[in-house]
Amino acid sequence: MQMIELKTAALLAGSAMIGAVIGNASEEDCRKIYRYALELGLAFQLQDDWLDVYGDPKVFGKNIGGDILCNKKTYLLIKALEGANQQQRAELEHWLTVSEFDADEKIAAVKALYDEIGVRAICQDLVNAYFEQGRLLLEKVALPSEKKEILWQYALSLLGRES
């Protein structure tokens, strides 16, 4: 989570805060806007990692399973390793260390392990929690509701949601 915060989320939060500063927001509102965007950035990156495993390639715009094939240390993989029993952990570690494999087989096997361990729901719950926290923070910003609505619509579009 720290890597996501320092990379994706900080970029979004910094951009939002620059906009708030340019718009002459108070120092307090600048902090709230920063935190709002940070929460959205966390939700966005977690959802992006989730979509890499569970998304529809036609909607997602790229092939599914790339993170699995590259052994990328996503939140899903870390949570799977934390929550795995001895057998599941051994199988995950096998897929992380094997040098020759069938890509579809590796993706299917790791995805099945994620499902067994329950990381699909854990990740989605965390995405929703960050998203909701961002919404609550935005409500506290001293802006007219129509201006907040613009920021909220941006959040919805960023996460592929509807109002």
Describe this protein with a few key phrases.
single chain; 163 residues; mainly alpha; 9 helices; elongated
Blueprint of the fold:
Blueprint: H1 2-22, H2 27-54, H3 57-60, H4 66-69, H5 75-83, H6 86-97, H7 103-117, H8 119-139, H9 145-158
Shape: elongated
Span of the ends, CA to CA: 27 Å
Low-confidence stretches: none
Strand content: under 5%
Largest sheet: none
The topology string of helices and strands comes to HHHHHHHHH
Give the overall pLDDT as a whole number.
90
User: How many β-strands, per DSSP?
Assistant: 0
Q: What structural category characterises the helix and strand content?
A: mainly alpha
- The radius of gyration computed from the alpha-carbon positions, rounded to a whole number of angstroms, is 18 Å
Helical residue percent?
Answer: over 70%
Tell me the number of helical segments per DSSP (H or I, 4 or more residues long): 9
Verbal overview:
- The chain has 163 residues and is mainly alpha-helical.
- It has helices spanning 2-22, 27-54, 57-60, 66-69, 75-83, 86-97, 103-117, 119-139, 145-158.
- The chain starts with a helix and ends in a 5-residue tail after the last helix.
- The relative contact order is 0.13.
Brief synopsis:
The chain is an all-alpha fold and 163 residues long.
